[in-house]
């Protein structure tokens, strides 16, 4: 039986993980009271938007870089 290749985490997809880190650091995005969404100032609803961006980018990177394990390959 051949041994699997060593895992390499050097995928270009990993660069997408910088988006949810860098986006909240751009303070001019939420340094105002307007626009309001359902009465909430931009600061509050943008925090929730940042969470959604983080979840979406993490999910995308995981799906694009996930390799099935040996056990999953045998089960198929």
Form type? elongated
In terms of DSSP E residues, the strand content is under 5%
H/E element sequence: HHH
Helix-residue proportion? 40-55%
| Count of helix runs | 3
Please outline the major beta sheet: none
Q: How far is the N terminus from the C terminus?
A: 18 Å
Q: How many individual β-strands?
A: 0
Q: Regions with pLDDT < 50 over 5+ consecutive residues? A: none
List its salient traits.
76 residues; mainly alpha; 3 helices; elongated
Characterization of the model:
The protein has 3 helices and no strands. By secondary structure, it is mainly alpha-helical. The protein has a domain at 13-65. The longest helix is centred in the C-terminal third of the chain and has 24 residues, at 42-65. It is elongated. The model has no long low-confidence stretch (mean pLDDT 84).
What is this structure's SSE topology?
Layout: H1 19-22, H2 42-65, H3 70-75
Could you write a compact summary of the structure shown?
The protein is 45% helix and 0% strand.
